[in-house]
Amino acid sequence: MTDQTFTARLDDARQQVEARLDALLGPAPLAGETARPPTLMAAIRHGVLNGGKRFRPFLVIESTRLFDGPQEAALRVAAALECVHCYSLIHDDLPAMDDDDLRRGRPTVHKAFDEAGAILAGDSLLTLAFDIIADDATGLEPAARLKLVSALARAAGVGGMVGGQALDLAAEKSPPDEAGIVTLQAMKTGALIRFAAEAGAIIAGAGDNERARLHRYGAVVGLAFQLADDLLDLTADSKTMGKATGKDAGRGKGTLVALHGIEWAENRLGELVNEAATLLSPFGAKAETLVEAAGFVAQRKN
């Protein structure tokens, strides 16, 4: 697969997911909803429909395609996952958390609206994510939807992304050792990426061994994603990144790059890409896009 072909696949998935998110975040209330307050919906849409690669949704779509699973279900689960991811960004940007004014080159939600609006927008997106998956419109049997809801809840909650954010805040006061950094990053960044990779196996009804292999692949890609992010935080400028850079170093947060250096990190990224390819080798050519995805993460510039 050429870089151009991979980029086209990624862009196609992004467009599909954004169109679905645009529809899901429309003004008309769903059955069981009383109304959708316009200001709240504007804050939600500001926090979601603001660009981005939609890499996590892309992994859901491609991991489902690996098993020839239903693409409509994949698209809905991808949109749900992006709701969780965007909620986390909205809340992470708040003054009580990472205190950022810029996200994807635009004012963060609490800057464009206010802090209360940002909190409510995040709350709304988190609950909407599970609504989307649980809905009959997802087109999966109830047992499959239950597995997806459970897996996403574990990935997003106290033992996953939210717990990772708590560890990240604690790291500003007491920098963790290397094992602590790995745990923090596996939770804050890695958990949703692991879910994204594993979700396709659940959607398609793949076996336990296949699901476990995709889970491990997601863990490798998640580590590569965070390692690349830490490198970019040190080497890229805020204009390229669309957000502030150098903040982790400024706050004294420990990272694997800070511990081992840039050269080590670059070599480790190469090892992780190879590991991802090895994990997917049993699937042959059908896994080519997912293999390319690991390389994309390692080489990204923003």
Strand order of the largest sheet: 1-2
Coarse shape: globular
Oligomer: single chain
Main beta sheet = 2 strands, antiparallel
CATH superfamily: Farnesyl Diphosphate Synthase
Total count of strands? 2
Q: Which value, in Å, is the CA radius of gyration?
A: 18 Å
Global mean pLDDT: 93
Give the distance, in angstroms, between the N- and C-terminal Cα atoms: 22 Å
What is the percent of helical residues? over 70%
Number of domains: 1
Could you name the CATH topology?
A: Farnesyl Diphosphate Synthase
Question: How would you classify the helix and strand content by structural class?
Answer: mainly alpha
SS summary, helix count: 16
Description:
Belongs to the FPP/GGPP synthase family. Pfam families: polyprenyl_synt. It is a single chain. The chain is globular, with a radius of gyration of 18 Å. The protein starts with a helix and ends with a helix. Helices cover 71% and strands 1% of the residues. The protein has 302 residues and is mainly α. The mean pLDDT is 93. The chain contains 16 helices and two strands. The chain has a single domain, classed as Farnesyl Diphosphate Synthase (Orthogonal Bundle), CATH 1.10.600. A hairpin with a 2-residue loop joins β1 and β2.
